[in-house]
Amino acid sequence: MEFDGWIEACSADDIALEDVIRFDYGNRSFAIYRTANNEYFATDGYCTHQKVHLEGGLVMGRLIECPKHNGRFDLSTGEAKRAPACTALRSYPVKVASGSVYLKLND
């Protein structure tokens, strides 16, 4: 469901603490994260190094580690934090309302 640019992606409970899930919308793929502190973030789904989806990655605090070559990104900004990842991921605003996670895809 879409409302004012916000896309309903999943139930908040679909993502375990310190985990990541894949969300596909149209022809795009995203990664949605939940930290140990119950914060939610979203970025483009594919690592900028070799286009591996981040859904199998490891969430550590506010970092996601790519499952293929262990590059790391900041969940809140998309900033590349460890080689071989050098290019940032695009990040998206996230809100949780009525038990659902929403992404804002329109700038």
What does this protein structure show overall?
The structure is a single chain. By secondary structure, the chain is mainly beta. The chain has a single domain (2-104), classed as 3-layer Sandwich (Rieske Iron-sulfur Protein). The protein has no helices and twelve strands. It has strands at residues 2-3, 6-11, 19-25, 28-34, 40-44, 58-60, 63-65, 72-74, 80-82, 91-92, 94-97, 100-104. The protein has a four-stranded antiparallel sheet with strand order 1-2-12-11, with no helix packed on it. Strands 3-4-5-10 form a four-stranded antiparallel sheet, with no helix packed on it. A four-stranded antiparallel sheet has the order 6-7-8-9, with no helix packed on it. The two termini are 18 Å apart. Pfam families: Rieske. Its cofactor is [2Fe-2S] cluster. Residues 7-103 form the Rieske domain.
How is the topology of this model organized?
Elements: E1 2-3, E2 6-11, E3 19-25, E4 28-34, E5 40-44, E6 58-60, E7 63-65, E8 72-74, E9 80-82, E10 91-92, E11 94-97, E12 100-104
Antiparallel strand pairs: 1-2, 2-12, 3-4, 4-5, 5-10, 6-7, 7-8, 8-9, 11-12
Judged by helices, strands and strand pairing, the structural class is: mainly beta
Radius of gyration: 13 Å
CATH superfamily: Rieske [2Fe-2S] iron-sulphur domain
Number of helices: 0
Domain Rieske: 7-103
Protein name: Naphthalene 1,2-dioxygenase/salicylate 5-hydroxylase systems, ferredoxin component
InterPro entries: MocE_2FeS, Rieske_2Fe-2S
Cofactor: [2Fe-2S] cluster
